[in-house]
Amino acid sequence: MTRSLHKGPYVDERVLKKVLGKRPENTGVIKTWIRRSDISPEMVGFTFGVYNGKTHIEVLINEDMVGHKLGEFSPTRKFVRHGGKMQKEIDQKKKVAEITQAKTAKATTDTKK
Asked: Is residue 30 helix, strand or coil?
């Protein structure tokens, strides 16, 4: 559920304090465990290390992320793809097709020269 408009966005003071008065070029990765904090316009350009429960995932903040939460860009669950033996065969066929396509593209560029 989103926050009501009269309360405004929730930006944690500790995260904001780490950003204010600093330049993104000079500041390295800012580690934070505060996933619930909203991204404000002052944070654009900074790189945050957002904790996902195991490690800090680096997130470079841009204008499109303003208004979202920091935790949205640091997934806590790792997707292990579905499939098995059949999926491996499909992936192998795709890889072979890409290799043959690259070889034919290279051959056509060599003949043009």
From this structure: strand
**Closest by alpha carbon to 58, among 29, 37, 78?**
29
Report residue 15: phi and psi, to 5°: -70, -45
- Mapping DSSP to helix (H, G, I), strand (E, B) and coil, where does residue 1 land? coil
Give domain limits for the chain: 13-73, 81-113
CATH architecture of the domain formed by 13-73 = 2-Layer Sandwich (3.30)
Tokens, residue 36: 């619930």
Report residue 53 as tokens: 């429960």
pLDDT tens track of the chain, all 113 residues?
567 778 888 999 999 999 998 998 888 999 999 999 999 999 999 999 999 999 999 999 999 999 999 999 999 998 877 777 888 888 899 999 999 998 888 888 777 66
